[in-house]
Write a structure and sequence with these properties.
By secondary structure, this protein is an alpha/beta fold. The chain has one domain: Rossmann fold (3-Layer(aba) Sandwich). The protein has seven helices and ten strands. The strands form two sheets. Strands 6-7-8-3-9-10 form a six-stranded mixed beta sheet, with helices on both faces. Strands 2-1-4-5 form a four-stranded antiparallel beta sheet. A hairpin with a 2-residue loop joins strand 4 and strand 5 (70-71). It binds adenosine-5'-diphosphate and magnesium ion. Magnesium ion is lined by residues 47-48, 166-167. Magnesium ion binds next to helix 1.
């Protein structure tokens, strides 16, 4: 890839503020338009710490994050977060209907210039295989899979540039996982603006489906993964 990266995380690191223990070793990570990156690694290795640092949700202990070539200043963080969306494993769903949840971001200052579009939201729901009644469902009646679909639609309707997906399907049924992957693929294929994604996954098959570049996290160290062995590439007997 060439050109200015969408995100360039330069020598970022994170420590446990209490014990001082290193959670993320100094890391350089560059994400270009069109990149689809997957990260796998053992539980507790620092995948979420890294992704949250990239999303500027937690303070960095060193380094900085440049966005379109410019370091993100404090005042620009809301605009950065609008474009670089972090999807959690367990979504935060509010009381009320799915539509109430989808309308919520538009009540925030950062989204003053855009309005909720029910047709668009319904079309995203349809892409995820949900019927017309989905937007009117009570959030408290949603399954885990449906809650994650609603949370992803809440983000996608805002046209983010980068998705940081933190094991979004880890505890979901296969049908919901498939719907989540489909929504992300359709978002990525929309070429009105540059797009890139980082998908933390517990599932190597999913990591392969959803990325071209595969990294591993181990003990707070981010590394290129060894090329996966493909059964079709076994030497002929
Ligand atoms: N805010 C925090 N303060 C202190 N320790 C943390 C914090 N967030 C995560 N950790 C610790 O950092 C390590 C990596 O956590 P995490 O990134 O959540 O792992 P995973 O790879 O499973 O996503 C764990 O030991 C976790 O307990
Ligand atoms: Mg995690």
């Amino acid at each position: 890839m060439t050109g200015t990266p969408l995100i360039d995380a330069v020598d970022i690191s994170r420590r446990d503020p209490l014990s001082g223990q290193i959670l993320l070793r100094q890391t350089r990570f560059t994400l270009y338009a069109g990149d689809r990156v997957a990260i796998t690694g053992p539980s507790g290795s620092g995948k979420s710490v890294f992704l949250r640092a990239l999303a500027l949700l937690d303070p960095l202990d060193s380094g900085h994050i440049a966005w379109h070539g410019k370091p993100v200043e404090r005042a620009a963080i809301p605009r950065y977060r609008r474009n670089v969306a972090y999807i959690r494993q367990r979504p935060a769903i509010l009381d009320g209907t799915v539509e109430d949840n989808l309308r919520y971001p538009f009540s925030l200052k950062a989204y003053r210039d855009v309005q909720f579009d029910r047709t668009r939201a319904a079309s995203l729901a349809a892409q995820a295989g949900r019927g017309n009644d989905f937007l009117d469902k009570r959030a408290s009646d949603l399954s885990g899979g449906e809650a994650q679909i609603a949370a992803l639609i809440r983000v996608l309707q805002l046209d983010p540039e980068v998705l940081l997906l933190d094991e979004p399907t880890a505890s979901l049924d296969p049908e919901s996982s498939h719907a989540i992957e489909g929504l992300v693929k359709a978002w990525f294929a929309d070429d009105r603006q540059p797009r890139a994604s980082v998908w933390v996954s517990h599932d190597p098959a999913q990591a392969k489906r959803m990325s071209e570049r595969h990294l591993t996290m181990r003990g707070g160290v981010l590394d290129e993964a060894a090329a996966p062995r493909d059964a079709n590439e076994e030497p002929a007997q």
